[in-house]
Write a structure and sequence with these properties.
By secondary structure, the protein is α+β, with helices and mostly antiparallel strands. The chain has 22 helices and 10 strands. Strands 1, 2, 3, 4 and 5 form a 5-stranded antiparallel sheet that branches. Keywords: Membrane, Transmembrane, Transmembrane helix.
């Protein structure tokens, strides 16, 4: 049975409420600059941004503020240590909603006779967070399950708050170039999309199944989903039994716990590097030791995704650092930051110094947190902002390393990265990957061949008349000035035909395709002489 939509909240009323919260925490200038109260100045005074006041403001906003603060606590590329410490005090733990308020959600999702599906349902929640509460229950067939229910009114309140925060960020960007450099609108929109996804409990269940299918191949457990009872506002999943990782403590040489830590780290790294979709919050409360050393993950409300292009960029960055190619490292970081205007030569010097600090160090002697700390210092110095999708990646890595070291202090997660990166590189440079790349090239060349008659006709016209028709875009004159005295040689039809033939022959014979490309290269070289 479909759940009725939640009643939207007035943005005007919520804006007035947030304006009062700002005033309560002493941000009068900020409230005036953002238009909450009459003000003769649009200037935003950065001195009002004090860690304690900002954290209190976020806490008073409610669930969206708390979740935003938790995310900001992972952004060491933006904030210094005392800010990160302040944000880290925000915890997503709230007083539970009465079951009398939760039951209508169950009835609207399953029908008024919903109790008939259960042999037992404990009305006392196991946990209560800002988005949902969880309950233990037993189905009629004896299956023990966890029931996760979205708190009533949550979606409407959060959607209103995100819309308002994005609007405030747009005003702040327009009035402060310093703030605009950090792209808060992009950050908040991404935050809003992720939050909307987290409120969809069916989406969480689908992520659990997708990632779980991959984790199963390496022996890691995830809950099975009971889809007949799962929807937008409620999901029902298998209850995993084991020892919560939060109860393990330091291993003190316990081989079982050390083996568990290694399996956990291996699972996190493989999710990120090889699978591209990963559990975004693998803290000890979401991890179980099952049996002697098996790992189990629960709660896929936060999920990170790295596109193939992004993973390729990360591989390129790792290879550039390993090869001490400072220029390539700078290229990746600047591309991630949106190509801001910075002193590239100074950045290259600082990057070379940073890489030099770890030069000659054994991999097992390097901590991710140590590397990230130095990189984040550099990013802040040059005001380079990482893309939002990398924030959850960094949070996951730092959470994983901190957790593993708490279980096995001598274990180094960086050392485990090496064989996994080797697998990724083998995948990237495999025969199948090369064939896929050549197929894409073939498609592009076939597209070019469609316009080849026009190109040749234009070339023939130029050859007969001696004139080259040129149309200049005024914005391109500056670029053209740096390219003068360069000539473009005409490519003959024989070379074009050979290149196209090469693309067509890829599927039939690599040898013939390669031969065609070699001959085409010879023709083009001779043509240019």
């Amino acid at each position: 049975m479909a759940s009725p939509p939640e009643k939207p909240i007035s943005s005007i009323a919520r804006a007035a409420e947030i304006g009062r919260i700002l005033m309560r925490h002493g941000a009068k200038t900020l409230a005036g600059a953002l238009g909450f109260i009459p003000s003769s100045s649009n200037v935003i005074d950065p001195r009002e941004f004090r860690p304690a006041a900002v954290v209190a403001f976020l806490r008073d906003i409610g669930p969206v503020g708390i979740k935003l603060g938790q995310l900001l606590a992972t952004r060491s590329d933006l904030f210094t240590e005392h800010w990160i410490t302040a944000f880290s005090t925000l915890h997503d733990q709230v007083s539970p909603v009465r079951f009398a308020d939760i039951e209508p959600v169950l009835a609207s999702s399953w029908g008024e006779d919903w109790r008939n599906d259960f042999a037992q349902f404990d009305e006392q929640p196991l946990a209560s967070a800002s988005i949902a509460q969880t309950y233990s229950a037993k189905l009629r067939d004896g299956s023990e399950v966890i029931v996760k229910v979205r708190r009533p009114g949550t979606a409407a309140r959060m959607e209103a708050d995100v819309r308002l925060l994005v609007r405030l960020a747009e005003i702040a960007e327009a009035r402060s170039p310093d703030i605009a450099r950090y792209r808060p609108v992009e950050f908040l929109r991404t935050f809003g999309r992720n939050l909307a996804w987290e409120m969809d409990l069916a989406a969480e269940s689908r992520a659990c199944e997708r990632i779980g299918a991959y984790l199963e191949t390496i022996g890691v457990r995830t809950p099975a989903i009971h889809w007949e009872l799962t929807g937008l506002r409620v999901n029902v999943q298998e209850r995993l039994y084991g020892r919560p990782a939060s109860s393990l403590g330091a291993s003190s040489g316990d081989p079982e716990v050390a083996a568990f830590a290694k399996c956990y780290a291996n699972a996190v790294l493989r999710m990120i590097i090889l699978n591209g979709e990963f559990h975004g919050d693998p803290h000890p409360g979401n991890v179980f030791l099952i049996g002697e050393q098996d790992v189990g993950f629960i709660d896929f409300g936060s999920v990170g995704t790295l596109t193939k292009a992004r993973r390729d960029e990360i591989v390129r960055l790792v290879l550039a650092i390993a090869g001490e190619e400072t220029s390539d490292v700078a290229d990746v970081l600047l591309a991630w930051a949106g190509e801001p205007k910075v002193d590239r030569d100074a950045l290259a010097v600082d990057l070379d110094q940073l890489i030099g600090e770890f030069r000659g160090t054994v991999l097992s002697g390097i901590e991710f947190s140590q590397i990230f700390s130095r990189v984040f210092d550099l990013l802040r110095d040059y005001r380079l902002v990482l893309p939002p999708d990398l924030a959850i990646l960094l949070r996951t890595l730092l959470t994983a390393e901190g957790f593993v070291r708490s279980l096995a202090p001598d274990y180094n997660i960086a050392e485990e990265t090496r064989p996994i990166m080797t697998e990724l590189l083998a995948e990237r440079f495999s025969l199948g990957s090369a064939r896929s790349g050549l197929k894409r090239l073939r498609g592009q060349l076939l597209g070019l061949s469609a316009s080849l008659p026009d190109i040749l006709a234009t070339a023939n016209s130029i050859a007969k008349s001696g004139y080259v028709p040129v149309q200049l875009d005024p914005l391109s004159i500056e670029q053209l000035a740096g390219l003068r005295n360069e000539r473009q040689s005409l490519k003959g039809p024989l070379a074009a035909a050979l290149i196209i033939a090469s693309a067509l022959l890829v599927d039939q014979s690599w040898l013939l395709a390669g031969g065609a490309l070699v001959i085409a290269g010879v023709v083009l070289i001779r043509k240019s002489l």
